[in-house]
Specification:
Length: 203
């Protein structure tokens, strides 16, 4: 599979396209844990306000093209906690994310994403087939180690979200945006996430 992704990277470069990899993640009001210092026998306890089921979902694209600075494009979706509320992205959300990336990057896209049902929705496939700037490929059934966006989530959780008691969903979203904006300006971090997968994109 690594060879196949590398081949698609070369084909994308040959056609002047951006190779983009996509993933989604959910972030709740309960912060991820990190190590800290304390007196022996006195474990620090952080009280968190708000209902734990309140969460923010993010869909993100890491975008690579030889000779260009790597990019990160993302879109949030907030879950209001209601039982009848939609907790995941619809096919139209992925459509809008791809359109936004196309406009920002100014060129054709070759997205590679997982086999999530909504990624293979009939309406999304029909819409994609009518776009000459879009060619979609799929990862194996379970291959998070091949997806550099997993590294983006790791950077976010270990850096901007760890050991913070979020007071409101807005506070959580503010920290997420701050972390993602920082990563957007650091193409070396986006490149490093690709390197961690063992994949390369050659001119």
């Amino acid at each position: 599979m690594r060879g196949n992704v590398a081949l698609r990277g070369r084909l994308a470069a040959a056609h002047g396209a951006w190779l983009v990899l996509e993933d989604e993640a959910a972030f709740s009001m309960t912060p991820p844990h990190s190590r800290t210092w304390s007196r022996r026998g006195h474990t620090p306890v952080i009280r968190v306000r708000g209902r734990p089921r309140r969460r923010v979902s993010i869909a993100a694209l890491t975008c690579y093209k030889p000779g260009e600075r790597s990019r990160l494009v993302y879109r949030p979706r907030r879950d209001d906690g209601r039982r009848d509320g939609h907790k995941s992205f619809a096919w139209t959300d992925y459509r809008d994310l791809l359109i936004a990336a196309h406009h920002q990057l100014g060129g054709p896209l070759v997205p590679i994403w997982d086999n999530l049902n909504v990624h293979k929705a009939a309406d999304l496939r029909k819409w994609a087939a009518a776009r000459d700037w879009l060619t979609i490929h799929y990862l194996p059934p379970y291959a998070p180690d091949l997806n550099p966006v997993e590294g983006i989530w790791s950077l976010l959780r270990r850096g901007w979200l760890s050991n913070i008691a979020f007071s409101t969903p807005e506070h959580l979203m503010q920290r997420i945006r701050r972390g993602l904006r920082h990563i957007q300006y650091r193409s070396d971090l986006i490149d490093g996430c690709l390197t961690e997968t063992g994949l390369t994109i050659s001119p």
